[in-house]
């Protein structure tokens, strides 16, 4: 792979990390992205790119021409009020797309609550949160569009993302973290760098119409991770709060679900060995390199 023309709908932490991974492999890149802001030229690690305005109210007319020249498309924009604005735009505007690779970033919230049991890509999807309900509906709509338009689509269901800049250690140091107490509560996580690496591997090991869970090897409770982070920093553990007393509706909804997300399909399909197999390696690395 000598050159890649990539179009990113949305340019948040995952898309940026993915682009940086491509550049680090000495691959020439022609990058185009979208933003809610006005169209402008930008720079990421010496990569000059166009950022086209794209939101539910306004879409730059020039972006379609760039989109049709792309051979890889990454979609990381979440549904807006239940509507996937990228899907809505493409279903009306895309006819002959020459892309070899289209990836939609979804979330493991589509599984809902499984009482702490393991789930894989064949497990029942019964989302309990609004986010999960919207994500599952959007996944199905994307699969339908891909079939109708013969688009090379894969779906990545991302577990809870943490990174060198966003993690429990930073929240502990700023005294924002609390120990959330709930029995049999498990959730899966994934380091941002591993997501970027897996996306990169999928460029060469792509199979259309597949869904992959993107998670590490060690699902854990919020309490377990918070206690480990406190020990790692050598600070007192934070206060404990019962899940029923959480004020944030969004956060309380998160704790309604308990499941362990299997990553076996991902690791086999992309022959990938996680850089951070669990929060232990991830948080140790963050402490030693970023904190």
Give your account of this protein's structure.
- The protein is an alpha/beta fold and 291 residues long.
- The protein has a domain at 3-163 and 190-216 and 261-275: 3-Layer(aba) Sandwich (Rossmann fold).
- 35% of the residues lie in helices and 22% in strands.
- The chain has ten helices and 14 strands.
- An eight-stranded mixed β-sheet has the order 3-4-2-1-5-6-8-12, with helices on both faces.
- Strand 5, helix 3 (85-93) and strand 6 form a beta-alpha-beta unit.
- Helix 7 packs parallel to helix 10 (279-289).
- The protein is globular and about 55 Å long.
- The model has no long low-confidence stretch (mean pLDDT 93).
Task: Please describe the topology of this protein.
Elements: E1 3-9, H1 13-24, E2 28-35, E3 40-44, E4 47-53, H2 63-69, E5 72-75, H3 85-93, E6 101-107, E7 118-119, H4 130-149, E8 153-158, E9 160-162, H5 168-173, E10 179-181, E11 189-191, H6 192-204, E12 210-214, H7 222-233, E13 240-242, H8 249-254, E14 260-261, H9 264-269, H10 279-289
């Amino acid at each position: 792979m000598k050159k890649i023309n990539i179009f990113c709908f949305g340019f948040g932490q995952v898309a940026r990390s993915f682009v940086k991974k491509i550049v680090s492999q000495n691959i020439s890149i022609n990058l185009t992205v979208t933003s809610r802001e006005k169209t402008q030229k930008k720079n990421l690690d010496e990569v000059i790119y166009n950022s086209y305005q794209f939101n539910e109210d306004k879409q730059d007319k020039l972006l379609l021409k760039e989109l049709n020249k792309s051979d890889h498309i990454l979609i990381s924009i979440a549904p807006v009020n239940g509507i996937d604005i990228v899907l809505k735009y493409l279903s009306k505007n895309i006819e002959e797309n020459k892309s070899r690779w289209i990836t939609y970033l979804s979330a493991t919230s589509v599984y809902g609550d499984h009482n702490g049991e393991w789930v894989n890509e064949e497990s029942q999807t019964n989302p309990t949160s609004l986010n999960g309900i919207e994500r599952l509906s959007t996944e199905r709509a994307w699969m339908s569009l891909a079939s109708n338009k013969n688009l090379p689509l894969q779906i990545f269901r991302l577990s809870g993302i943490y990174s060198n800049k966003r993690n429990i250690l930073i929240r502990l140091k700023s005294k924002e973290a609390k120990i959330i107490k709930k029995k049999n509560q498990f959730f899966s996580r994934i380091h941002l760098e591993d997501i970027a690496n897996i996306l990169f591997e999928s460029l060469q090991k792509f199979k259309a119409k597949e869904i992959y869970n993107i998670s590490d090897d060690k699902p854990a409770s919020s309490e377990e991770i918070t206690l480990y982070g406190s020990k790692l920093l050598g600070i007192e553990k934070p206060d404990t709060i019962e899940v029923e007393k959480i004020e944030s509706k969004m956060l309380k909804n998160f704790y309604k679900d308990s499941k362990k997300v299997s990553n076996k399909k991902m690791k086999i399909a992309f022959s990938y060995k996680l850089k951070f197999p669990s929060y232990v390696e991830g948080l140790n690395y963050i402490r030693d390199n970023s904190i």
